[in-house]
Amino acid sequence: MNQIQNLFSLENKTAIVTGANTGLGQGICVALAAAGAHVFGVARRSCDETLEKVKEVGGEFTEIIADLSDLSAIDSIIKEVSAKADRIDILVNNAGIIKRCDAIDVTMEDWDAVTDLNEKLVFFLSQAVAKQWIADGKGGKIINIASMLSFQGGIRVPAYAASKSAVAGMTKALANEWAQYNINVNAIAPGYMATNNTTQLRNDSSRNDDVLARIPAGRWGTPEDMYGAAIFLASEASAYMNGFTMAVDGGWLAR
Questions:
Q1: Model confidence pTM above 0.90
Q2: Which of 74, 138, 141, 225 is the most buried (most CB within 10 A)?
């Protein structure tokens, strides 16, 4: 392996990926494992499919079942990973939910469910990991999963738009404080991806056509489209990147 390839290697690294059982989280698990990391995938439901995909690329994967809507899960996740690995090197805050509803009809319960998982969890899980990194002086990588709605307002998803705008702002805020500790905090903003979260949109022929008409690449994205960005931000190749939200969107924002 030459010097440039070494920059992208995750050999002997340990990564935590939330929302690991499906969609983009699953794709990120596969990418990081293929690059050499031991990936601990966190989800409420079985990650068996993710495990099989990681095995196909010769990677290492450990499942952690946890309900991330309960912030007390943070301590148990950290303890479980720490019991099986020397240290945590990479955190990917991918878990999130979206609830589609006219703004006039949004309930407090739905608002809190979205913002607690998409925003509050991201901060406090990042804080828990950063405390370890600051204490041992070795730093680490945090990758937050933002959204096109970190830049735009969207339609019928006000809580989601608010939470993903917060993720972009939080990414900058944490980078400002933690870069001095060799902690890189960056984000990926996926474009319109063919995942469970977009099933309703893709099944609506009118909305589906509207979305595709604005994407210069002419197609919905896939979890595989996240591979390169995830490996880059998790590796030493991005050592001088701090507080940036990288769009992987087929050109959506450029349109």
A1: yes
A2: 141
Q: Is the pLDDT of residue 1 over 80?
A: no
| Model confidence at 21: pLDDT above 80 | yes
**Residue 160 catalytic?**
yes
For residues 25 and 208, what is the distance between their CA atoms, to the nearest angstrom?
23
DSSP code of residue 87: -
What is the number of alpha carbons within 13 Å of residue 78 lying toward its C-beta?
A: 15
84 pLDDT more than 80: yes
Task: Check residue 120 and report its DSSP letter.
Answer: I
DSSP of 164-230, one letter per residue?
HHHHHHHHHHHHHHHGGGTEEEEEEEE-SBSSGGGHHHHHSHHHHHHHHHH-TT-S-B-GGGGHHHH
The token duo for 170 is 């939080």
Task: Give the position of tokens 């990681």.
Answer: 54
Three-state DSSP at 101 gives coil
Domains of the chain, each with CATH number or no CATH: 3-248 (3.40.50.720)
